Amino acid sequence: MRRLALIPFAVALVACRSSSPTASLSTLDISGNWSGTLTNAANRLPTPLSFTVEQGGLVYLQPSPGPDPNQVLAGTYSLDTDLAVIIGGSVSGVINKSTVSLALNKSPSNGCVILVTATMTGANSMRGNYTWCPASDSGSFSATRR
Q1: In the chain, what are the domain boundaries?
Q2: What is the pLDDT of residues 25-60, one digit of tens each?
Q3: E strands of 83-136, at which residues?
Q4: Residue 81 confidence (pLDDT)
Q5: Nearest-angstrom CA–CA distance, 97 and 105
Q6: Which of 53, 58, 113, 130 sees the fewest Cβ atoms within 10 Å?
Q7: What is the value of pTM for the model shown?
């Protein structure tokens, strides 16, 4: 009789377990401190960039289906412009396998966002492209984990 009482519990446990989202095993963990450059396509001048991201365990406030919570990125950044002005703010984004998408939002906001799309080129490096205030500035992006 005891065995029969445990069967519904085991079935419920398996059903709950199979319906819960699982992390993609092929998604890299990119949490940490990064430094790199944004290089303007027109004048080829590099602008130093540093950012910190945390990955996973974050709530994604978009209608379903959204990315796996383990793919969600959040953090902060600072950008050292050629005018010796430091710009900073928040970082948000996602990583899907080896593709990283970041939005660098200035604080206080002026509506200007740096959008980065990059590919991981190793466990501690990424390369890609950026646009800043869409279409007013664009170029290449590269960063390494410190």
Answers
A1: 23-145
A2: 467 899 999 999 999 998 898 999 999 999 985 554
A3: 86-96, 99-106, 113-122, 125-132
A4: 77
A5: 24
A6: 58
A7: 0.75
